[in-house]
Amino acid sequence: MRIVVDLTRCQGYAQCVFLAPEVFELHGEEALLYNPAVPDDQLERVRQAAAACPVQAIVVGEEVTVSAR
Amino acid sequence: MPGDLRQGRIVIVGASLAGLRAAETLREEGFTGSLTVVGDEPYPPYDRPPLSKQVLLGKVAADATGLPMRRDPDAQWRLGVRATGLDPVGKRVLLADGQSLPYDRLLVATGTRARPWPDPREAALEGVFTLRTCDDAGCLAERLAAGPRRVLVIGGGFTGSEIASVCRERGLEVTVAERGAAPLVGALGGTLSKFAASVQRAHGVDLRCGVTVTALRGNGRFTGAELSDGSRVDADVCVVAMGAVRNVEWLADSGLAASSQGIACDAGCRAFDRYGIVTDDVFVAGDVARFPHPLFDYQMLSLEHWGNAVAQAEVAAHNMVSSGPLRRPHLAVPVFWSSQFGLNIKSVGVPTFSDEVVIAQGSLSDGRLVAVYGYRGRITAAVTINMAKWLEYYQGLIETAAPFPPGPGAADGRPLVAEFSVPSNVPDPKGLFHGPTVALTGHLPDYRLAVGRPAG
Questions:
Q1: Rg (CA), chain A
Q2: Closest CA to B192 of B61, B352, B63
Q3: Could you tell me if residue A51 is inside a domain?
Q4: What are the structural domain ranges in chain B?
């Protein structure tokens, strides 16, 4: 599972940092750093974080897989 | 007719953020035909902003920034193969492997690449890097982890400044050489660039401004560089961060209005041909596009912004499957961000489209502030430093052409810190190492502009 945070939208409410601190962290007061490759044991927390984001900036989904042509 | 647009063959050239989001949107909008996405890198779409931050810090692996799909675009992915040409009459994209892809509608989203160091022999020295792809980031992260004695960063734009920030956080000595008067001056103008310079120096960056790098030295391995002021920097790693070059060379014989400034298109993302006549089957999105924006005197904007790539891809995809009055304009107000030295810098509007700037909230000494930019008496941009929650408010002022300077306490009831605005001192981009993040690229292309072959 992969995530991307739309940092254009992110306002640094940091709900995700509280809900999934192993995936999201604040760098300084409000710059968000995160791990785009979500470990399996963090999936539920990341889903909660995505749902709780006040500006709905977190996109959760599968990476594109390309089958051999 | 409108029904027909949901069928047929669509080819997207460019398999990064804009290409992926366009492919998803085409399916969301009911496109049922065949969809092929071509990318020159061998990887599925991945996110680039983390490369100069999490990846260089060693927190995230370089191959771990793959973008999540919002839905499966049910596309055929042709990755690791470069598009080499376009036949707009026969409606085919030519590929480096000799094959060609027929299309009914085409989306060009080929983006940019890092501007290389101009001397190829010096650029080939071991230890000299650029940063654009995940391969670049992986190699550079490995070198930084190995603990070089000093890193030289050429160019003090956003990428160069973020790299310098990472170096300091890793405890590495770093020198930044910037041709302009201060870092970020091309994007943010004079006032905030002085602030950026003081932040860099406070964090221990050896910042050299108003100098150019005249030569990279080394015998197989990079050992240092000569500067135009006669000084020399000894370093084991050099990162060339001199901005981006638009990937338009493959369109040189296509008849499209493609130049080093990008591919000109209308507000509906339809490409112009070299005569300035709009096409109806070739669309453009992302970093490679230049498009007119009514908020900025209809000047053509070239934006290297994450959010623009997404928004423009969505509009392009919508218009590729919609006809006439159902088409939408790409009118999003530009927004970008950068994180460096523990600061969250965000911008809305076009700071380079300005003649004055005022600190409207916070202060330089607090390290948190809102700078508001004006042009001929109206607000055209705002930059927040660690005050991102205010961005939306100022976006509203920009969209409504609110008068500049903003009224005292307009936002938070506090008096303005600076009573008077000062010139925004946006430099001529020609004087910078790196292009500004927003480039104003003149009015609609005429014949003379459009015949210029892209710079190599």
A1: 13
A2: B352
A3: yes
A4: 9-50+67-113+245-326, 114-244, 335-438
Instruction: Give chain B's length.
Output: 456
Q: Do B339 and A29 touch (CB under 8 A)?
A: no
Are B318 and B332 spatial neighbours (Cβ–Cβ below 8 Å)?
no
How far apart CA B163 and CA B321 sit, in angstroms, is 41
Instruction: Give CA separation, B197 vs A39, B201, B205, B209, in Å.
Output: 38, 6, 9, 9
Q: Which of B106, B105, B85 is nearest to B94 (CA)?
A: B85
Q: B2 pLDDT exceeds 60?
A: no
Superfamily of the domain at B335-438: FAD/NAD-linked reductase, C-terminal dimerisation domain (3.30.390.30)
Question: Which tokens hold the place of B78?
Answer: 């042709």
B53 touches chain A (CB under 8 A): yes
Is the CB of A11 inside 8 Å of chain B's CB atoms? yes
CB B129 within 8 A of CB B34: no
ipTM of this model? 0.96
Q: Phi, psi at residue B429, to the nearest 5°? A: -55, -20
Chain A residues with CB under 8 Å of B337 CB are 7-8, 10
Contacts of B67 in chain A (CB under 8 A): 2, 4, 63-64
Is A12's CB within 8 Å of B65's CB?
no
Distance from CA of B337 to the nearest CA of A (A): 7
Q: Can you tell me the distance from the alpha carbon of B209 to that of B216, in angstroms, rounded to the nearest whole number?
A: 18
| Local structure of residue B170 (DSSP, 8 states) | T
Token pair of A55 as six digits: 């500006």
Query: Looking at residue A46, which CATH number applies to its domain?
Result: 3.30.70.20
Residues 356-375, chain B: which have Cβ within 8 Å of A?
A: 368
Strand pairing category for B76-79 and B128-129? unpaired
Please enumerate in sequence order all residues whose Cβ is within 8 A of that of B35, keeping only pairs 6 or more positions apart, or say none: B10, B12, B23, B26, B27, B73, B74, B75, B76
- pLDDT of A19-65, one tens digit each? 999 999 999 999 999 999 999 999 999 999 999 999 999 999 999 98
User: pLDDT for B109-168, tens place per residue?
Assistant: 999 999 999 999 999 999 999 999 999 999 999 999 999 999 999 999 999 999 999 999
CA atoms within a 13 Å half-sphere pointing along the CA-CB vector of B176? 34
